[in-house]
Specification:
It is built from seven helices and six strands; from the N terminus they run βαβαβααβαββαα. By secondary structure, the chain is α/β, with parallel strands linked by helices. Strands 3-2-1-4-5-6 form a six-stranded parallel sheet. β2, α2 and β3 form a beta-alpha-beta unit.
Length: 199
């Protein structure tokens, strides 16, 4: 079975993530998509990283009704640090009947060569790449060993960093940026410096 792997801290999950998931599922390449929540990224410190359970709950609010999409907390259940190559190796060993595709944006494609032991992933996954604002979809020379599929995608310029900054400054992100239930959840649980429950 062709299975897409969409990793992220989803801090918080936003409309851009929803659009990417829809594009990956509509690509004609995948039979299913696993959205994998990363407890903490090994390559950078995020001071405003919301608790895993809150990020998991927000993912459920957004994606619970999507057909052929499954949420995975696998990285919460395997030893850290959570390098992508380690998780993919674990999944490949656990599900040998599945053909995995790593689902990424074009911006990630341009920097992926610097990932930890990225060369070990060539035999384990193919890449499914969606366009991102300001990023080339051309495959860098260092990534030529990978099988790369391009995915039609209407690019959106939304970032979790931008959303967290707006919330901390007391500005309410619009529905074009956050699912209404996620916006309510953030206020209700006082995440990212929000003022408190929605009135």
């Amino acid at each position: 079975m062709s299975t897409g792997l969409f990793f992220g801290t989803f801090n918080p999950v936003h409309r851009g993530h929803e659009a990417l998931a829809s594009s990956f599922l509509s690509s004609g390449v995948l039979e299913e998509l696993w959205v994998i929540l990363t407890p903490s990224p090994p390559h950078k410190h995020v001071p405003t990283l919301a608790p895993f359970d809150d990020r998991w709950n927000m993912l459920k609010l957004v994606f619970s009704g999507y057909p052929k999409l499954h949420l995975s907390d696998i990285e919460q259940r395997i030893p850290s640090p959570h390098y992508t190559v380690k998780t993919i190796t674990f999944l490949k060993n656990s599900y040998p009947d599945r053909h995995f595709y790593l689902c990424i944006g074009a911006d990630t494609l341009q920097t992926m060569a610097s990932w930890y032991e990225v060369e070990k992933m060539v035999s384990k996954v193919e890449l499914l790449v969606a366009g991102r604002p300001g990023s080339s979809v051309a495959v860098p020379s260092e990534m030529q060993p990978f099988v790369v599929h391009q995915c039609k995608h209407e690019e959106t310029d939304i970032s979790s960093t931008q959303i967290r900054k707006s919330i901390s400054e007391g500005r309410e992100p619009g529905q074009n940026m956050l699912h209404p239930e996620v916006r309510h959840y953030i206020r209700e649980h006082r995440l990212y410096g929000s003022a408190g429950p929605v009135k």
